[in-house]
Design brief:
alpha/beta; Chloramphenicol Acetyltransferase; six-stranded mixed sheet; 42% helix; 17% strand; elongated; EC 2.3.1.7; acetylation; acyltransferase; EC 2.3.1.137; transferase
Amino acid sequence: MQSAYLDCRMPVAVYTSPGVVLPRMHFQDRQGQMRFAAKLIAGVLDFKKKIDSETLPVEYLSGKPLCMDQYYQILSSCRIPGPKRDTVVNYAIGKISSTHITVVHNFQFFVLDVYNSDGTPLTVDQLHMQLEKIWNSSLQTNKEPIGILTSQHRNTWGKAYNNLIKDKTNKESVRAIQKSIFTVCLDAPMPRVSDEKYQSRVAAQMLHGGGARWNSGNRWFDKTLQFIVGEDGTCGLVYEHAPAEGPPIVFLIDYVVKYIMVHDLDVKVLMFSHFGKNVPKKHQLSPDAFVQMALQLAYYRMYGTCCSTYESASLRMFKYGRTDVIRVTTVDSLNFVQAMQDPAKQPSERVLLLQKATQTHKNNTYNAIHGQAIDRHLLGLKMLSIEDLTSMPEIFMDTSFAVAQHYNLSTSQVGSKTDCVMCFGPMVPDGYGVCYNPMEEHINVAITAFNSCEETNAARFAQAVEGALLDMRALLEDAAATAQQ
């Protein structure tokens, strides 16, 4: 550690500190940034519990146990610059362990206590609230980027450091950063680049922050662990290499990402008790098509548009058959949902459009289960062109194909005689997963969405589905009563 890192006088930024890019997050604003940062902090604190209680499972290589010491060096530690050589101080070792993290926004550093007085960690909601306060207290963008000093040549920074801590307030501020469990950098959005260049741009941002104009002043490069959460959805971390190698850092990242993804899923189960298959069957409509049109109507009411909708079709009529796609959104389904929202349309007209839309869906379902759908066929052609190294057919490069494959609604009817609920996650970050079981007198619907997406909300969608089902029954019954008169 001494010769490889602490004696080295080159800047730690770029020269020795590795940057790590996390998967791109699907938020583009401060709300998403705050929410993700809060969950990330909670995830690291959850990992810290294992370190504090020394319950981290021992790792093995070829059946031999590995030393776990590095795991105990990465939290609450910091590199300290010296005029000729640096040192690392670990504040986790000792009687009083740190209870705060450092948060940096607009080059301004804040102490955030992450534990309650009884020793329990703050909840994600409490952390979110504190981050909001920090954000609102640091809106000025004209502050000196003191953190950028930590990116200098070590001798230069060592001299500046000694001058800096001559001032009592500065010394206390620096100590607070050094003693903190880790740092969270709330970065300003970086310039947009093409998707092709995105990963490279983010990798550079994680390594050095993009320069003085951007986020390099939003760092304390001596801090062992700095998590970076950008307002534009870019996330990752940079770590000071002296206390540990990559594997413990990657293990921590895996743990935290798994923690966030689990906490990111919003699940709402709708036990729809007003009616079941009995109502559509009474009106000679396919129960599956009826529920699917309700999902279309609910989505249209929430977003004012239709979306690509996936319903799985079983191919078990064929040996080893798995699934193909029933594409639910059709011209007829669009005509129906638009008519439901158009006050000028008569109920009789709406009923005809519902009948037509459900019949189209029934036909498409029949075709799909009999091997006449399009998606697996296209998948086969795409895989062949990749395998044969021929040029990719134009259809697969077309924007409309990408849109058609982006299923905001991923749905499946899993019919069971048992009163059970199956659920699965959304296929896309800004989508819903909807699994339903239509029983004779009621319908069980499980809806999932990601909390990290501002636009989706499982509970609101469940409410919209319930409203759509009730409105569709009312429509059918009114029409039937009118016909009897």
